Amino acid sequence: MSQIVLKGRKAVGGTAEGEALVTKQTISTWGGVDAVKGIITERRHELRGQSFAGRVLVFPSAKGSSGWSTVAQVIRLAGNAPKAMIIGEINSLTAIGAVVMQVPTVTDLDQNPTEVIATGDWVKVDADKGIVEVTKKG
Amino acid sequence: MSQIVLKGRKAVGGTAEGEALVTKQTISTWGGVDAVKGIITERRHELRGQSFAGRVLVFPSAKGSSGWSTVAQVIRLAGNAPKAMIIGEINSLTAIGAVVMQVPTVTDLDQNPTEVIATGDWVKVDADKGIVEVTKKG
Amino acid sequence: MKLTRDEQDMLEGKEGRAKQRAMELLVQYGEALGAERFVDTNNVHLLIGFYPYPQMVTPRDSDELISKFLLDTDERIVVDRVKSFNTTHIWAIDLERWQVMEASESLHELMEVIKKYCIRTGVSITATCTPYQIGNVPTKGEHCAWTESSAVPFCNAVLGARTNTEAAHSAFAIALTGKVPLSGFHIDENRLGTHLIDVELDVNDVLEWYLLGYFAGEVCQLAVPVYQLKHAITPNISMLKALNAAGASSGGVMMYHIIGVTPEAPTLEAAFGGKKPKEVLSYGPAERRQTYENLNSATDERVDLVNMGCPHYSLEQLRDVARLLEDKKVHENVDLWIWTAHQLKAIADRNGYTDIIAKAGGHLLTDTCPLNTNLFPKGTKIVATDSAKHAHYAPAIGGVDVWFGTMEECIDCAITGKWRGELK
Amino acid sequence: MKLTRDEQDMLEGKEGRAKQRAMELLVQYGEALGAERFVDTNNVHLLIGFYPYPQMVTPRDSDELISKFLLDTDERIVVDRVKSFNTTHIWAIDLERWQVMEASESLHELMEVIKKYCIRTGVSITATCTPYQIGNVPTKGEHCAWTESSAVPFCNAVLGARTNTEAAHSAFAIALTGKVPLSGFHIDENRLGTHLIDVELDVNDVLEWYLLGYFAGEVCQLAVPVYQLKHAITPNISMLKALNAAGASSGGVMMYHIIGVTPEAPTLEAAFGGKKPKEVLSYGPAERRQTYENLNSATDERVDLVNMGCPHYSLEQLRDVARLLEDKKVHENVDLWIWTAHQLKAIADRNGYTDIIAKAGGHLLTDTCPLNTNLFPKGTKIVATDSAKHAHYAPAIGGVDVWFGTMEECIDCAITGKWRGELK
Fold first, then answer.
1. What mean pLDDT comes out for the span C17-28?
2. Does any CB of chain A come closer than 8 Å to the CB of residue D235?
3. What pLDDT digit, counting tens, does each position of D220-272 carry?
């Protein structure tokens, strides 16, 4: 089982580990996620129908609606938050979204996380240190 | 009695003559003129209290409100129109104002009319040809 | 003027008498301006509901009325639809609260006649001097035809769109045909700065922008001032509304630049198109003081009317004035009139501002201009205002003396009945 | 983050618990963004009345409610006054016609609770996704903090003001403190173009601008596209609203340039800051066709709901849709919903548009978003719209299939009950 270590910076502190759910597509929580079910619902999204609850969500950034943190907060309140988030390029929506989702979040990594990490890989996130350890699946 | 000839261009056609009323200050008809009395009313205007009815009004241009042509038309309907207008630099307000006042009007003259012409001078305006003949008073 | 095929067709009457008459007026207008051709526009701010001498307005048949007063003919011309998207400038009265203004029943009837005409012909009854506050926000470079001298510089200087100050007649003809003479501020070179104004002072509130604009209008008249701010600030919509209204009152400033702020003036060079300023002026403490003195024509500190919202108050100003009036009472000798657009009043209603103003004994009025001829409350001799435009015009229009100051000073005056303002 | 004295004071609680909690959130937010400091703002577009999962919103004490949902704490914090001038984005329901939407009484009660909270704390109940249509028009360079992804590019690209896409939590904290993290589009270099899009086609109406924006959003995602138009046109507010809404749906285009049109792009060089584009893309007939196909998810031509005005219709669009509906009847199987801002409806009322729409059997609705979760009429399966934003989101939000086309095609569909639109 190969291991990869990515270095980035803390967006929201804390540590967590879990199975990765990875997309190369941006995510809009409002109008693209069912917060209560914890799944992606956007019509042409590659993760449509998949659940991020309890996993480590790896995605390039947020697009779309300013309802991002509103839905992110409901995701948390509904118990559907991911264990951690790894965001390629953080922006205003994902930054405040991560704050209110209250999960360890890293960004600005030295390698593109959506290329290096695959869905199903085991990921340890130490957000305080900005370190991501990836154990490749199989 | 010295004579001066100014050459400019027609703004509104026609011919007329009369005594000049000259100001170096711009005029706002709305909020600066009483159309029914035919006098200038602007508080700090050098022509305050004076009537332009039946005279040749010589002024640099319009300032102020877009009510210019509204008041200009009422000036005409109230029988208070000047005989003609000589405008230093015509602009949108004075152009449509002259059209609805329906008086011969010239502009773009080869000399500054508010310097060459004095109140009381006798002025012949041939707007079609763009010619102004000034006979100095006294 | 050189006409295109469609313009020639309109002039020849192929699209009906109304467009023909409009084109006749526009050709005369264009020739008076020395314009060579027309340019298309789909954005007109009309002046159709305002009759400052209602005693001259006899016909009550709306087609006859508009033919006479806007198409300038005794022929009765029936308009089908205006062509351009449009908004309308102020009307003669508050269309709902006209009795507060003591307007006559006959003036109200006239307005109802014109309202029906507008609905029939596709004219938007927006009734405000601030179209940019109620949804008419032109794009940089968009050719417009706007009435209202304080709105024109917002269109030109602030948004970078293009308009001359149109008048009632020209705007109506332009809306009918969608054609405006290519002249004045529609042309690049006429938009360049002419006068440099070195602003030595900190202009950081509405009063300061009024004073600066009133100074610039007086010295620049029809020219294009370029403001160089020693103390950098990005003025907001309330401040720019003040600058625009003042410069168009003491002068005819329809275009200006603020270096580093307005869209056509990223640099001083850009503002002047690389040319040298014709004049360089300084705005310092002496100019500021003199401008303030010029605006204040009153000496009696007992005020009859406090008139605010000229041009129509912004959302921010409505909020601020409501805060100042909360749990206060207007003095029994004073009328307090606060003006805004009907559409912004809809927000004031929901937000409780209207209630606060009413409870204090003031009136929130809409649709018309606080400078409306002969419509001050009877017996008004002394007026207080926070608008340099109002302070400029009210003496000539209403035969009154005026105090000019801040919003806070005006509300203090409304409550105490006495003017206690001063230049700080 | 490096804090100034006043920021430090707020964080330490010297200005009360509300500002302290807001600063706590903002410091976390700023650190997540990697910002080094704050910048002052007096222009916030808040999201305070919108709760897409009302079943999660239990407290009915407004201070508790706002503390939990906007200040993100179980502590009950009482806000005195928000500091910044503000407007509010859409609310959860039409505040007056909520029964038309079949909204629940309890959701209506929730709105009434929040309305009172807003009035008490100085929040403007404007309730629209288009603040620039109702009086919030920022100046070029003005630092703002706006929610609503379609409004943000209007602020940034069209007006040249500066904002990131703020969310409910960040916007509220910013309004309380007047402080926004200096990052993203507040910084010059991030505003420069990255991708050049050669627009080969004539984009001359709202549909074309929707298609262009949806294409650009999909290919550029969070980047800054620069549109080079082969056929020059100055798009008006209705067209730019379409471009902005589309680009923020398929992607996250929060800033862009149109060469020769938008204020920071007088030239291609200026748009890219002298740098080379990262990518050059072409928008021609094939891209246009593919974008249209992407937006159309329906196959059944029998439509249940025609939903128009997303983002809220402009004055021009209200006029045009009323003209199309004059003397027409909406088909018995179809609901016709047309959305605009409360303030613009005030104009529609006066101009007879509201009556025309009602007579035809449609509804003119306000205050909320036509994409509001779970608030389509019961049984809605097929929706027609003239908004690419609506066509993008409605399938995920409402589980419906969507037809996308022009305003004319939508009204034709509302009248006939059948979708007959096609790309011409």
1. 98
2. no
3. 999 999 999 999 999 999 999 999 999 999 999 999 999 999 999 999 999 99
Residue of A28, A61, A65, A69 marked active site: A65
Indicate the residue among C184, C205, C234 that finishes a domain.
C184
Say whether residue D33 is in contact with chain A using an 8 A CB cutoff.
yes
Q: How many domains does one find in chain C?
A: 3
Closest to C88 measured CA to CA, from C398, C378, C390, C368? C368
Residue with tokens 């003396």: C401
Residues within 8 A of D (CB atoms), C 83-112 only: 85, 87, 95
How many domains does chain B divide into? Answer: 1
> Is residue C148, in this structure, part of any structural domain at all?
yes
- Distance (Å) of CA B92 to CA B11, C165, C167, C171: 11, 6, 8, 11
Q: Give the domain CATH number at C177.
A: 3.30.499
Side chain identity, residue C173: A
pLDDT band at A1 (very low <50, low <70, confident <90, very high): low
CATH of the domain at A112: 3.50.30.10
Chains C and B touch (3+ CB pairs under 8 A): yes
Pair (C405, C388) in one structural domain: yes
Same domain, C77 and C23: yes
Residues in chain C within 8 Å Cβ distance of B90: 32-34
Task: Measure A62 CA to nearest chain D CA, in Å.
Answer: 7
Same domain for C214 and C275, yes or no, is yes
Chain A residues whose beta carbon lies within 8 Å of the beta carbon of residue D166: 66, 92, 96
Mutate to test the interface with B, among C1, C392, C400, C404 (most CBs of B within 10 A): C392
Question: Is the domain of C220 the same as that of C275?
Answer: yes
The subunits that touch chain A, with at least 3 C-beta pairs less than 8 Å apart, are D
D28 and D141 both lie in a single domain: yes
Question: Do D214 and D319 lie in a common domain?
Answer: no
Is D114 domain-assigned?
yes
In-domain check, residue D124: yes
A65 is catalytic: yes
This prediction's pTM: 0.96
Q: Could you tell me the residue range of the domain that residue C258 belongs to?
A: 192-294
Residue D151: partners with Cβ closer than 8 Å, 6 or more residues away: D45, D89, D129, D130, D131, D132, D244, D311
Contacts of C76 (CB under 8 A, 6+ apart): C61, C63, C64, C67
Report which DSSP code applies to C275: P
pLDDT tens for residues B89-98? 999 999 999 9
Q: Which of residues 218-277 of C touch D (CB under 8 A)?
A: 234-237, 240, 260-263
- Cα B22 to its chain centre, rounded Å, is 8
Q: Are residues C315 and C218 part of one domain? A: no
C324 shares contact with chain D (CB less than 8 Å): no
* Domain harbouring C341, CATH code: 3.30.499.10
Q: Do residue D319 and residue C140 have CB atoms under 8 angstroms apart?
A: no
> Could you tell me if residue D343 is inside a domain?
yes
Phi-psi region of B23 (alpha: psi -120 to 50; beta: other; left: phi over 0): beta
Question: Are D148 and A10 in contact (CB < 8 Å)?
Answer: no
Amino acid at B82: P
Residue D414, both tokens: 């509302």
Q: What are A95's two structure tokens?
A: 């930054």
> Same domain, yes or no, for D236 and D311?
no
DSSP alpha helix (H) spans, chain B:
68-77, 92-101, 113-116
B58 to chain C, minimum CA–CA distance in Å? 16
Question: Whole domain around residue A65: which residue ranges?
Answer: 3-135
Q: Do D169 and A73 touch (CB under 8 A)?
A: yes
Best residue in C85, C91, C269 to probe D by mutation, most D CBs within 10 Å? C85
Q: Does the ipTM surpass 0.90?
A: yes
Choosing from D158, D184, D210, the residue where a domain stops is D184
- Touching partners of B (3+ C-beta pairs < 8 Å): C
